[in-house]
Design brief:
Radius of gyration: 21 Å
Number of helices: 14
Length: 367
């Protein structure tokens, strides 16, 4: 029987915030894909609207089910997503030197976006089940490590270093939240400090070039450094109030590469300036605080950790994407939530928001 308290406790504020950010995202994307010359890509805008509808459907489905049921189904969800990652390496579509997409009729999806949600659910299940007031020891962290490293290696193999990095950061944020035993934490920091430099030798040539370019973009201004330089020019030319809607010259003259995905924040900053950039970042800050507040109010350990994981996913993607656009981080191909073009990204982020809503509206069950 339907419980009317679900309507009473429904998080209308979170829904309104998501709709506002999504609307601003569609407006920015419209400018990014229609004002570029000589080949405007208006079809991408209409595709994004369809993906938003799919994302809203996923969000409604997520908050309609009791998030507690995910505790029982977490391993099955994880296993299915791992199989999809393996399948995409074998049969996935090869585009731009990477094999990341599965073609399902007229639709292409990225399983690497879905695995982030699967890892969040699986880690929330493990940490809530094995909660330890003293903090988790190295032996207790072995299972979370395996749950993270398996999809991490499969995603790196595609290759998609950006998504793999986001996955590790999400898992790290959840692990720090549940607390690590002090000696174990010191041991982890020591091992990472010693082995960190060795990762350089595991990177591919173009990945090393991106890092070197990040340190000094002027070493190859017409090659690897072109993206960062043009992005900085676009952001700086927006000044305080921007050039106005559809009037960004860096975007219109196609100087700004990947303007509808990785560097859409640069389009926004050029057209709406410092004021518009701060406003959208403020909305993201409110969203992140909202998610953490949901985690704080939840009295169920599984729900609390799940909310922290979903919020961490949004936070790290915003942090990395904006950092890339401003030249503060290497270019690793991470989309800006709700703003960048990308169907799988929109759907996965919307599902995360749906999980936050599910946790928020069912908090009365534990009061």
């Amino acid at each position: 029987m339907f419980d009317r308290r679900f309507v009473q406790y429904f998080d209308w504020g979170l829904l309104g915030l998501i709709l506002l950010i999504g609307l601003l995202g569609l407006v920015t994307l419209y400018s990014a894909v229609t004002s570029a010359t000589p080949t405007p890509q208006k079809t991408l805008y209409f595709k994004q609207m369809i993906w938003y509808c799919a994302g809203m459907t996923g969000m409604v489905f997520s908050f309609s089910i009791n998030y507690k049921s995910l505790y029982r189904w977490s391993l099955a969800i994880y296993a299915v997503c791992i199989l999809l990652l393996i399948y995409v390496l074998i049969m996935g579509k090869y585009i731009g030197g990477a094999r990341r997409w599965l073609i399902l009729g007229p639709v292409s999806i990225q399983p690497s976006e879905l695995i982030k949600i699967a890892v969040i659910i699986s880690l929330a299940r493990y940490y809530s089940k094995h909660a330890n007031p003293r903090g988790f020891t190295l032996s207790e962290l072995l299972t979370p490590f395996m749950l993270t490293i398996i999809p991490f290696m499969l995603i790196v193999k595609q290759p998609d270093l950006g998504t793999a990095m986001v996955l590790v950061l999400i898992a790290g944020a959840m692990t720090v939240f549940v607390k690590i035993e002090r000696r174990s934490l010191l041991c982890i920091i020591t091992v990472c400090t010693i082995t960190g430099p060795l990762v350089w030798f595991l990177l591919k040539g173009y990945q090393k070039k991106r890092i070197l370019t990040f340190i000094n973009p002027d070493r190859d201004p017409l090659g690897a450094g072109y993206h960062i330089i043009q992005s900085k020019i676009a952001i700086g030319s927006g000044m305080i109030f921007g050039k106005g809607f559809l009037k960004g010259t860096q975007n219109a003259l196609s100087f700004l590469p990947e303007q509808h995905t990785d560097f859409i924040f640069s389009v926004l900053a050029e057209e709406w300036g410092f004021v518009g950039s701060v406003f959208i970042l403020f909305l993201f800050l409110v969203l992140i605080i909202w998610g953490l507040n949901i985690a704080y109010k939840c009295r169920d350990p599984f729900g609390t950790i799940l909310a922290v994981g979903a919020t961490a996913m949004i936070f790290w993607q915003v942090f990395i994407n904006v950092g890339m656009a401003m030249g503060l981080m290497p270019i690793v191909g991470v989309t800006l939530p709700f703003i960048s073009y990308g169907g799988s990204s929109i759907v996965s982020i919307m599902i995360c928001v749906g999980l936050l809503m599910s946790i928020s509206m069912r908090r009365f069950l534990f009061e």
